[in-house]
Design brief:
Two copies of one chain form a homodimer.
Chain A: H1 7-19, H2 35-50, E1 54-57, E2 63-67, E3 77-81, H3 95-111, E4 119-123, H4 137-142, H5 148-152, H6 162-168, E5 185-191, H7 196-200, E6 204-210, E7 212-221, H8 238-251, E8 261-263, E9 267-270, E10 280-289, H9 292-313, E11 316-325, E12 328-329, H10 332-344, E13 349-354, H11 359-363, E14 369-374, H12 390-408
Helix pairs in contact in A: 1-3, 3-12, 8-9, 10-12
Chain lengths: 411, 411
């Protein structure tokens, strides 16, 4: 049995969601728990109700729609992603995964197909982590990785708490934010956010897992002297030490794995004045690799380089590893289901490891999981220029629908 | 004739000014036109009146006290500095120059010495440039380098204008902010803010001029991609390019002059998020040297290095030179007068070029000028840990007093 989604309706639904919080630049401004997020949730709720799904909204705002299976004892297959966006994100990102899940259900209804297992579709709260940290917050709470009350207390830059904002938009539901039963599997479609599929000329990505990563912060403490009268040989310049180390963070991946990446995304200098030698500079590292052991080596290496730079510049230093996440390996039966679906549909699929975290990262703690990646043109992500052709969106959507239906077992 | 200041009264007066806006850390928080600045001005006004000087406050808040000479046609010798401070500055810095000038007048009165030329002492408004930019604002307006109305309109970070704040503290005077007559000479005592005198084991600095400098800003424009899925070979990382160039700004002086310095004091990265490749990074250069031609070579060199870094990282770039100041050579007759005064007093003096700008920089446009430097321990400046021993303060104060008296010609 092969499921074929209604391409026109699918594209129309994608365009409909893109209207909500749409930007002049053709992207989305739909931060978690904002007015735009409320609006897209209201719209999504209408779609769930129109599809006759039984709706649950949990106490963390995660939204579920359930289509019953024929076996009352069978565990549900969950599919979905997130509808929130970065401050100036693209229209595909998470929404593509949610709309594909909706379209899968609609098509099953159209064709009158029943599955043994229930199928649930989900919109996770705050995947992006732009307004409230951390990212993947809703799925993290639901999977038991984060504590509900701690996450409720998180504040945005205006000092508003997560809980108050969730209540304000009317999406603090009654259901506990946890699995209410065992789950058969979780599948998620997301745009790749990298260039590997496009480079290889593939149609669709079969995601075998997620890279492990380390996030850390280094601070150098130098001396704030006047930039004019202080000779070069009697300076303790925190920014020079930071610049050297940032160069090393760029260079370290080249000596490790093929998929290793190293990034400094954040830097803050004090007093940050043109004619004062920087006294204190804080900056970050972000190392990722499919092998946890490679991440470990990158971290050891940057600490050695940081120490050497501190010594050369005569500054004190300290560091803190802020987060370490092990790599995730998805369950073979789910990965294989995705691969079979792609092949059955005639798509040229490629196995790859996700370089970014997704809600699926947390879901892999709960049940067997896999993901489908849609081709990202130029690998652009988290900005308005993100682009996936409707052909590529449709290929990925058909793939996840067929994989889900295989796992849910048609009658 | 040799003038010897009253050491106890001099030290007491230094301590008295240090009480006003004094910090728990033993420094000063006396930003231009703040309440603390008003308080120290009120106190200084009392000292001028107690010394029977004729007081002028000009429309930019510069405060003058005049002691007449015996020749009604002789041009005045002006001595002074500034009483304002950095946010957390030291107690010596500019105040040492103002108090020394006051003490010079008091001692002339004590000894009943008359000079042919009038002697004026001055407290320049806003030398530091911490609250309102630029630095050396009051002397710059007075010397005709800056336009009065443009400087009136400058705002602090709270949006208060310079003019409103000057009126609020009651120091917008009636006199035009310009030389009302020809000036015979200007002398200024300031702490060195560098380690050269201490390193050489000298008592006092004879300042022959001020280094030239260039201030500029470079901006790299890269691409804001996700730090996880974006391979190292397809990144345009604005921060990596900036880090390389900051390293060059550190290295360039080593290849030019002995006194060349190069500093990046300011950096700003966007979006400045741990897991996003930096899209736009702006940072500054500050190059100084006694030779203008060396400053020119440093600027040419950094632009070449910036271009190379941009090419390596695949980012766009632009730059703006924000300020270029030629080096200043002080008048021989004033420098010689300072040198003679130090030698006559038995102090071990050393000629040097100032690495920092001072009000004397602008005054050199108006009349013959020189400066005296007091030893800075460890060269620390613009922070609470700034320190000059009372012996070194006193040596410098006696030096400037005697140089001033020579230029003003005792009867």
């Amino acid at each position: 049995m092969r499921l074929t989604l209604d391409r026109d309706r699918f594209v129309e639904t994608m365009k409909a969601q893109a209207q909500i919080g749409g930007t002049a630049g053709g992207g989305l401004h739909r931060l978690a728990l904002s007015d735009a997020d409320k609006q897209v949730r209201d719209w999504f709720l209408e779609q769930l109700e129109a599809a006759d799904l039984s709706v649950r909204i949990d106490e963390f705002g995660n939204m579920f729609g359930r289509r019953e299976g024929t076996d009352p004892n069978a565990a549900p297959v969950l599919i979905g992603s997130h509808l929130d966006s970065q401050p100036y994100g693209g229209i595909y990102d998470g929404p593509l995964g949610v709309i594909s899940a909706l379209e899968c259900i609609r098509t099953l209804d159209d064709e009158g197909i029943e599955t043994k297992h229930p199928i649930e579709i989900v919109n996770w709260t705050n995947e992006e982590g732009s307004r409230f940290q951390p990212a993947m917050q809703g799925s993290g709470v639901w999977a038991g990785v984060h504590d509900l009350d701690e996450e409720y207390a998180k504040t945005d830059t205006d000092g508003e708490t997560f809980e108050a904002e969730l209540e304000r938009i009317g999406y603090k539901g009654d259901h506990p934010a946890e699995p209410h039963e065992a789950y058969e599997a979780y599948l998620e479609l997301h745009v790749e956010q990298g260039p590997y599929l496009e480079r290889a000329g593939k149609d669709v990505g079969i995601v075998t897992g997620v890279v492990g990563f380390s996030w850390g912060e280094i601070t150098y403490h130098g001396e704030a002297d006047h930039s004019g009268p202080t000779p070069m040989d009697s300076r303790s310049d925190a920014l020079v030490a930071a610049a050297e180390t940032i160069g090393e963070i760029r260079a370290i991946p080249g000596e490790l794995g093929e998929r290793t990446v190293g990034t400094t995304g954040y830097i803050d200098a004090k007093p940050n004045s043109i004619n004062v030698i920087p006294e204190e500079v804080t900056f970050t590292w972000d190392f990722r690799d499919p092998e946890d052991e490679v991440v470990e080596r990158a971290v050891n290496r940057v600490l050695k380089e940081a120490e050497a730079a501190a010594e050369r510049e005569g500054v004190e230093w300290e560091y803190e590893e802020r987060m370490r996440a092990s790599s995730v390996e998805f369950a073979d039966r789910c990965v294989d289901a995705v691969e079979r679906a792609a092949a059955d549909l005639g798509y040229d699929g490629m196995r790859l490891v996700s370089g970014a975290g997704h809600d699926a990262t947390h879901m892999a703690e709960v049940c067997d999981t896999s993901m489908v990646f849609a081709v990202s043109e130029g690998g652009k992500s988290h900005n308005e220029a993100e682009y996936t052709s409707w052909d590529d969106c449709y290929a990925a959507a058909n793939t996840i629908a067929n994989a889900a239906v295989e796992l849910a077992e048609c009658e």
